[in-house]
């Protein structure tokens, strides 16, 4: 890990770092005593069943992870290499690079050792929530987010981190099909972000909210919230390509609903290019971008091209997540729809039935939807 500092335009310390553990991760940030956030990706079988194909906007967790990395780096650049806050920076970088198992090990070690201050411990619990959700361990993710919320709500100066934890838990509830709880948490997070004039947080939260709207075919609300999301993206200085890609994927979903397939293709292609530029080919966000694009190609009457693109996405998700991961299973359901539209009805039916059964077993084993966090919704 190498780090350097300079003076930013705002007058605060600006830090840059290069992670030795995660090749290609290099960032800079201004430490202004604010809080930067993580972003996530999500998949919802109910969404896929309720429309031709649901865009995958919330790929917001990855972005919030970027900004937590930037904040920790800027505030800790002058510390010794063994500083626990710097170790937490590295753990977030691992999660962003789709190395969730290593990130979990590091975060649990930091928490158990007691070397982090209370704020750092809250952020470590957020990281565990992100990683567990990446792995499809939703019950563990919920417990981690709830623990983060219990810590971060205690101090007014931690409000931005608290809002991020609320938004992360809201994402999990969307994945679980608990749309009302997901909406309530996003609205609660938005109020906190507004109080702190956090335009990046608002951009991500409004994009996430528009995704829930689209899931439920609340098109007027979706358009309104997405419009606000783009406005906040333009105002913010702490957003990146993942934030923009998430918003573009929602815009593509609206275009599909309006039967404007050419516009949907353009938006999905743009989103995929942004994810590839930010993460390369071997990353779940890139893999899901291919799934989105392939689904739109199928709607455009290009079954062969759609199948080829979908297979590329499936291969990436298999390499990075594994075939037993719920996100991979959601991709299989989407691929089955493409096969069915291409006339391969028997193959499509078998693939969909197997994926549905695997998702049901996963849901049953984790009791997904059994509990809603009353404390978080207060």
Protein described:
There is one protein chain. The chain is mainly α and 378 residues long. The protein contains 17 helices and 3 strands. The chain has a 3-stranded antiparallel sheet, with helices on one face. Helix 15 (326-341) runs antiparallel to helix 16 (345-366). The longest helix is centred in the C-terminal third of the chain and has 22 residues, at 345-366. The model is unreliable at 1-55 and 76-80 (pLDDT under 50).
How are the elements arranged and paired?
Blueprint: E1 2-7, E2 13-18, E3 26-30, H1 45-50, H2 60-76, H3 84-96, H4 100-113, H5 118-134, H6 138-152, H7 159-175, H8 179-195, H9 199-215, H10 219-235, H11 241-257, H12 261-279, H13 284-299, H14 303-320, H15 326-341, H16 345-366, H17 374-377
Antiparallel strand pairs: 1-2, 2-3
